[in-house]
Design a protein that fits this description.
This protein has 320 residues and is mainly alpha-helical. Helix content is 71%, strand content 2%. A hairpin with a 5-residue loop joins strand 1 and strand 2.
Length: 320
């Protein structure tokens, strides 16, 4: 016969024994073996995940301390932080950081506004709601390179683009979008592609709003505009923050529209394109690795804020 462990606890009114607060539960020998086995089964997957995700980053850090140009393979040597000093003092990093902030900032904010409008429309019941939602999501599902080619040649081309054709109908002169207004061109393409992403998050927030609260506001005589600004918008604050932060993380990595449409000209050379240029045009592997490490650090900072907001939303939803 096996001995049964007696667990300390308090007796409720219904006779049920519950463990005391602040004390760890006493596990039997069998439960301890099961717990050790479950932890041992997790370790291989955890070790594989750490290896796959962290080794490339550690290799990049190692290369960032190297002076290594592919045209001079015999001149490779360890230079410690010289590549970081070059990156931070040559002016290219700060101008690319400014271009990244402008392009990502405007794209995220405009996408957020359009995403909110579309989410409000989709939150209403109408015939074909599912079909309309599918069509609106399509731009986000399209490959970035394909979207960039469509916008470059079919929509914004100065000779045969549809936008200039529409301008000609109302007497507006054609615009060479890729050369005259390159920053605006990139922002238009990114807004078109990432508005559905914002719309999905905001639509989830709208649908989590308690309907009885909205009905009570309607009974009290509050109009749609007052209800939106007084009740819906405060409820959506955390979802909007999450949309901004996740959208910023995604857009910091955008490369295809810039490489295909403007090639980094006209103030559109973001950090991701500058890294590509130093690695595959200048062939400076060490310097490009330093750009990569700094970009990853910037992305991690944004991601930490995003995850904190995400956990706050989940905690709030779990308590409600």
């Amino acid at each position: 016969m096996t001995a049964t462990a007696i667990r300390p606890g308090r007796v409720e009114n219904d006779g049920e024994v519950k463990p005391r607060r602040g004390r760890k539960p006493v596990l039997t020998q069998r439960e301890r073996r099961g717990l050790r086995l479950s932890r041992a089964l997790v370790w291989p997957a955890l070790a594989a995940a750490i290896t796959i995700t962290q080794i490339p980053f550690l290799v990049t850090i190692y290369y960032s301390f190297q002076q290594w140009n592919l045209l001079r393979p015999g001149d490779q040597k360890f230079v410690w932080f010289d590549n970081y000093a070059t990156v931070l003092t040559n002016g290219a990093f700060l101008s690319s950081l400014l271009a990244t902030v402008v392009i990502v900032g405007f794209s995220v904010l405009v996408s957020l506004v359009f995403g909110m409008v579309l989410a409000l429309l989709l939150d209403r019941k109408f015939v074909g709601q599912g079909f309309a939602r599918t069509l609106l999501i399509t731009p986000f599902l399209m490959m970035p390179a394909a979207a960039s080619l469509i916008w470059k040649w079919s929509m914004l081309d100065s000779n045969v683009g549809m936008v200039n054709w529409l301008f000609s109908l109302v007497g507006i002169n054609p615009v060479a979008w890729n050369t005259d207004v390159p920053i605006l061109t990139i922002i238009i393409v990114l807004t078109w592609q990432y508005t559905p992403f914002m719309m999905l998050i905001l639509l989830a927030g709208l649908q989590s709003q308690p309907s009885d609260v909205l009905e009570a506001a309607s009974v009290d005589g509050a109009g749609p505009i007052r209800t939106f600004f007084s009740m819906t918008l405060p409820h959506m604050r955390q979802y909007m923050e999450l949309s901004i932060l996740l959208g910023t993380i995604l857009l910091l990595q955008v490369f295809d529209p810039i490489a295909i449409m403007t090639r980094g000209t006209g103030g559109t050379k973001t950090l991701s394109y500058l890294l590509y240029e130093r690695a595959f045009v200048g062939l400076e592997i060490g310097e490009a690795a330093a750009y990569g490490v700094l970009t990853v650090i910037l992305t991690i900072i944004v991601a930490m804020v995003a995850l904190r907001s995400l956990f706050k939303i989940f905690k709030k939803e779990g308590m409600s």
